[in-house]
Design goal:
Helix content of chain B: 25-40%
Helix content of chain A: 40-55%
CATH topology of chain B: Rossmann fold
CATH architecture of chain A: 3-Layer(aba) Sandwich
Distance between the termini of chain A: 17 Å
Shape of chain A: globular
CATH architecture of chain B: 3-Layer(aba) Sandwich
Strand order of the largest sheet of chain A: 1-4-5-3-2
Number of strands of chain B: 4
Number of helices of chain A: 6
CATH superfamily of chain A: Mannitol-specific EII, Chain A
Largest sheet of chain B: 4 strands, parallel
CATH class of chain A: Alpha Beta
Oligomer: heterodimer
Number of helices of chain B: 3
Shape of chain B: globular
Number of domains of chain A: 1
Strand order of the largest sheet of chain B: 2-1-3-4
Order of helices and strands of chain A: HEHHEEEEHHH
Radius of gyration of chain A: 14 Å
Radius of gyration of chain B: 12 Å
Largest sheet of chain A: 5 strands, mixed
Amino acid sequence: MLEQMLYEDSINFTNVSHHWEEALQSSSDPLLKRRIISQDYVNAIIRNVKELGPYIVLTDGVAFAHARPEDGALASGITLLNLKEGTTFPNKEKPVYLIFTFAAVSDDSHLTMLTELSHLLSNPENINRLKNTETYEEVMEIVHENIIEEDYQ
Amino acid sequence: MKMLVVCGSGLGSSFMIEMNVKEILKEINAKNVDIDHSDLGSASPDQADVFIVGKDLAGAAQSLGELIVLNNILDKQELKERIVERLEKDSLI
């Protein structure tokens, strides 16, 4: 599921340093372009971080940005932004290098994808490898390997 | 015992943690434990006995009641230790 949802234009790399708000906007852009979300959705993601804290930072170096379906999700989708310079969220010391931005139209339409993503990110080695990718193909190779492992379990 | 995993939106990280808790409960053969997930805005103290949150939401979740606060929400080992510790306290395992 994760593999099918990550299009070539959903995975982006940047060497430019970003403020965390710009980074969230930038990681949402492919979803905006595909009309998977509205700008309200991006605003809700940023507002939630301001109001509730950096809870979208899942583990060192990785953020999982999302809001509620009713905040402006028009379809389901996911992107990955690889920030080579990293970005620092409020009240977080360690920078975030990978931002997955995600939208779903209902609470349960995305469960398979979340299971796969959680499996992928629960191995710190995968996070390290993803950080060092330079191309779409390299990212997809890591995603693919991990989905195969899951199937064999 | 009822446990509720809480995150900011109730569909991302809280769901990931819930899946891990379910796996752990099966592994340690814990019975009589209910687990669900929700968002901080709609969670209320009467919904569960114990609330599980990541450390970034601990402050905002304080008013819910008893909390299990996780340093790293993707760390299954940490989660397992904290769940086992809490269930042993009530002799549920």
